[in-house]
Amino acid sequence: MKVVLATLNAKYIHTSLALRCLKAYSQEEFPMDIAEYTIKDPPMTIASDLFARQPDVIGFSCYIWNIEETITVIDMLRKILPDATIVLGGPEVSYDTEQWMERLPAVDHIIMGEGEETLRDLLRELSGSRKFHFVFGLAYRKGDEIVVNPGRPKLDLATLPSPYRFEEDVPSLANRVVYFETSRGCPFSCQFCLSSIEVGVRYFDMDRVKADILYLIDSGAKLIKFVDRTFNIKRDYALEMFRFLIENHRGCVFQFEITADIMRPEVLDYLAEHAPPGVFRFEIGVQSTNDVTNLAVQRRQNWNKLVRTVTKVKESGKIDQHLDLIAGLPHEDYDTFRKTFNDVFALRPEELQLGFLKMLRGTGLRLDAEKFGYIYMDRAPYEMLGNDLMPFADIVRIKRVEDVLEKYWNAHRMNRTIEYLVHVAYPSPFDFFQRFGDYWEARGWQRIGHQLEDLFVRLWAFLEEDRHPALDPDVTLALLKIDYYLQHKYKPRKLWWEDRLGKEDWTSRFKRAAAELGADERDLAKKASIDRVPFDYARWERDGIVDRSRETTLVFVHGAGEAPARMVVLDGQERIAAGN
After folding, report:
1. pTM exceeds 0.90 for this model
2. Using alpha carbons only, how large is the chain's radius of gyration in Å?
3. Could you count the other beta carbons within 10 Å of the beta carbon of residue 297?
4. How many CB atoms lie within 10 A of CB 80?
5. Helix, strand and coil in the chain, % to nearest 5
6. Phi then psi dihedrals of residue 347, to 5 deg
7. H helix or E strand, kind and range, residue 577
8. Among residues 226, 235, 244, which one has the least CA distance to residue 281?
9. How far apart are CA 474 and CA 157, in angstroms?
10. Which CDD domains match (predicted)?
11. CB 426, CB 470: distance < 8 Å
């Protein structure tokens, strides 16, 4: 019996941990292949590849991001491989399972919940007596009847073989994301999250976890993302893992989902002292700072302790932080969400992810949708379209914030400029991103592509037209210039602003720059950009004062290859040097 386990990942660099867990558990009894595609692959391409494998059993791992694309492939496979057994599993089909069986007549079986043991038992029945009623956690067809068996007890994690040691994965480890679990389950009960349904947390053996991680590092893994819902729920376990990874990282990067308000001070102190810069990344789900909202979704969160953790981690300068928000939660209208956004942006995370509530199957919030007046998409990803307090018109506006936030803050293309705009020139970060997002949308830019220069040109066009009274055009243009130069590894050939230096002025400043830097003029000309700003930039950066009594000559020395550009300020009360 030939078995193929397949899924459609969101991106090529992603890998499916679920498929590898299933294969590791059953491969000695039922050899199987893994087939990974992406949601961007044409369905005909996927179907053709699976057809060429001529499987007897095809299993698909299903999530909200791939279910609709997977259904298209399944419908094709049923026609070209009429005798194949098609099995679905994964969180998207583990709830409302009977409805899925009714909607998808091409599907023979659905596995609910943890699938390792259920898949093995199903394969045994398919190759034997086909008594499917013995398989806990399985839905199947019996003539025209749909049968949903009782669920399966939780697995003993100590019985699960490692899913990280397949030789065929080794050649691609350096170029793809490795997903890794040290535990299963979540201690919290957030009503918008599927993890709230499973009570309790189970851990894999620490020695096994360490051995698997060392194997992956030795085999070339460069990025390992831990999928634990709350990596730091057990202080001693988390501290031991952090210590182990610090001692053995060898250049590999690790990303964790942590709950910031329960992070113990001694763990923070240890990380601040010992964590190598750039090796750890933290993803922190804030979702809302509105107490009434958090109470409604059964989310326990101590904002003051969360701020303490995020601030201490940021001050260490060693760990990038990715903070998540969810727009559309109960009891949160446009104004209270604005406050949530500004509260979190004030922490200046390296990335602020603005998402929108998804009414996931099986969650408490979906069951209570009518209570809050929710309307939402009928098909995955089930994103909310409005509720009693946040109508669709507000959702659309906040989506414009999300668009420009991603391009201008999360991409870190112009940190100096954005910091000035959100801190000085506009009433709040949210107000800036909203006004700019509205402007972006009104000009139809969301429907066309952009290059680096376009982002600067469009922002400057908005600022010139918006003319916010607190905005100083000289400071804004100077910061835009600096950010633009520092985005280039090589000397830019094209400048988008109009007030450029004349030839004689440029030559005079260039010769002075070469002399003061002690550089060869010919060599410097190849890699340096020279510009000016009409005020004392060093004083502005230090004190926030715009002193127009003296101007500043800026020299940008562009590196080679991957080396970033650096800036040298020649004039003013003091000389400063800065990188990107």
Report:
1. yes
2. 28
3. 23
4. 11
5. 45, 20, 35
6. -80, -10
7. strand 576-579
8. 226
9. 62
10. Radical_SAM (cd01335), radical_SAM_B12_BD (cd02068)
11. yes
C-alpha span between 546 and 568 (Å, rounded): 19
C-alpha 516/C-alpha 575 separation (Å) is 11
The Cα–Cα gap between 68 and 70 comes to: 5
Q: Which amino acid is at 539?
A: R
Q: Tokens 């010769």 identify what position?
A: 511
∠ CA 253-255-260, nearest 5°, is 135
Per-residue pLDDT of the chain (580 residues; tens, 9 = 90+): 999 999 999 999 999 999 999 999 999 999 999 999 999 999 999 999 999 999 999 999 999 999 999 999 999 999 999 999 999 999 999 999 999 999 999 999 999 999 999 999 999 999 999 999 999 999 999 999 999 999 999 999 999 999 999 999 999 999 999 999 999 999 999 999 998 787 789 999 999 999 999 999 999 999 999 999 999 999 899 999 999 999 999 999 999 999 999 999 999 999 999 999 999 999 999 999 999 999 999 999 999 999 999 999 999 999 999 999 999 999 999 999 999 999 999 999 999 999 999 999 999 999 999 999 999 999 999 999 999 999 999 999 999 999 999 999 999 999 999 999 999 889 999 999 999 999 999 999 999 999 999 999 999 999 999 988 999 999 999 999 999 999 998 899 889 998 888 999 999 999 989 998 888 999 899 889 999 999 999 889 889 899 999 899 999 998 766 677 889 888 754 444 444 4
Report the amino acid identity of residue 164.
Y
**Token pair recorded at residue 388:** 């009693």
Collect all residues with Cβ–Cβ distance below 8 Å to 498 and sequence separation of at least 6: none
